[in-house]
Amino acid sequence: MGRLFGTNGVRGVANEELTPHLALDVSLAIGTFLGKGKTVAVGSDTRVSGSAIKSAVLSGLMATGHKVVDIGIIPTPGLQYFVKKHDEVFAGVMITASHNPPEYNGIKLIWTDGIEAPREVEEKVEEIYFRRAFNLVHWNEIGSLVNYPEAYHEYIEGVLSVVDTQAIREREFHVIVDVGNGAAYKTSPELLSRLNANVITLNAQPDGRFPGRMPEPTYENIKYLSDIVKEMGADFAVAHDGDADRAIFFDDKGRFIGGEYLLAMLSKYVIKQTGKRIVVTPVSSGRVVEDAVKSAGGEVIYTKVGSPIVARKMIELGDKVAIGGEENGGIIYPPHQYCRDGAMAIALVMEMISKTGKKLSQLYDELPKYYIIKTKVHVEDKEKMMKRAEEFLRGLEAREYITIDGIKAVFDDGWILVRPSGTEPIIRVFVEFNSEEKAKRTVEEVLSILKGE
Ligand code: MG
């Protein structure tokens, strides 16, 4: 049997891979799996194909007997918050391709707790899809459609309710926010205004052709923010990806803050603020997170790669968890909700600056710096290559080996992670050391082993 859901839901080029037919069949499968008579929320980002794909999804959910709430264009965490907050809403479907180029779109299933559906649920939906065992209900059981455009206000209120708004408002921030023509075009500027910030918004018109910049907030795509933040004398600049579950910052000196450094400084802050000791992050996260957490008296728990896996681990560990997140700017803050949330990251950064009385640049300077290289190799036989990589890494006699996801060799001055992709014929190699030269040399060594040289 084939697989439908990848790491990030069903995703592909609109009208080529992700056609309206496919969207309809996927939603019929989801609807059939849910039984009938449930309420399902549907939202989308700003992509050109968004309305076309969404219409097919709405149709499939109604035809399988569900009431559908269309909450319009909203960040993915906004939909997740809506599903979590409203008890009568059983699940959610998000139409988004996150950070992918404009021609892509995707369908993501959000489970009743507001987290991406677990793999077991996706497998059951896939089984229905491939058997085409859709349960089209009797004509008088077909579901209805309601619009609920106020969902984004509730989401902003949710974020505001878990930070010290008074402290932030008094600080009178100057902020540049680049929403990249994406789903946060209303939410993040409004959040910042509510926090009494002087806001300059960039690329804030919703436009799924992404004329301002590509939706992935890599350094290359958003480096212009460095000059803008310096020229405007702003406290920071922040950029989202297309569906705004991620936030990437530039400090007041115009320096790009990598996602692991953001997680590191927020971890330190939240541990000190709350006394909760645990920080959850995937094995692929940089050493700086562990350094920062240890310096604050906390402990890092590593998971496999994937934000829903981090979220579920955080729930399992419960009250002891301070914060969690990924190295790509995805921050999960338990008092709000258990998913990556770009707006939450902004509010929390503002609270951290207000309460510590330090500039973002000062907080960044307090962290040790490492050199990380992330690359991948195309391989035919993943298993064989992984064995070869493991033999090599074991031979290095590292301080510790972590085998939660691939194999990670941990040394005093850095680490090497070799990890097979779950969905593609690819092995990923991450290398981080406190010297750039050593990181480069090591990555070459590992790649030559994997290429069989
Ligand atoms: Mg995203």
Task: Quickly list its features.
6-stranded mixed beta sheet; binds magnesium ion; single chain; 5-stranded mixed beta sheet; 38% helix; 453 residues; Alpha-D-Glucose-1,6-Bisphosphate, Chain A, domain 3; alpha/beta; TATA-Binding Protein; 16 helices
Structure description:
- The chain is an alpha/beta fold and 453 residues long.
- It has three domains: 10-148, Alpha-D-Glucose-1,6-Bisphosphate, subunit A, domain 3 (Alpha-D-Glucose-1,6-Bisphosphate, Chain A, domain 3); 155-365, Alpha-D-Glucose-1,6-Bisphosphate, subunit A, domain 3 (Alpha-D-Glucose-1,6-Bisphosphate, Chain A, domain 3), CATH 3.40.120.10; 371-450, 2-Layer Sandwich (TATA-Binding Protein).
- 38% of the residues lie in helices and 22% in strands.
- Helix 3 (76-85) packs across helix 5.
- The longest helix has 16 residues, at 259-274.
- The chain is globular and about 65 Å long.
- The model has no long low-confidence stretch (mean pLDDT 96).
- Bound molecules: magnesium ion.
- Residues 98-99, 241, 243, 245-246 line the site of magnesium ion.
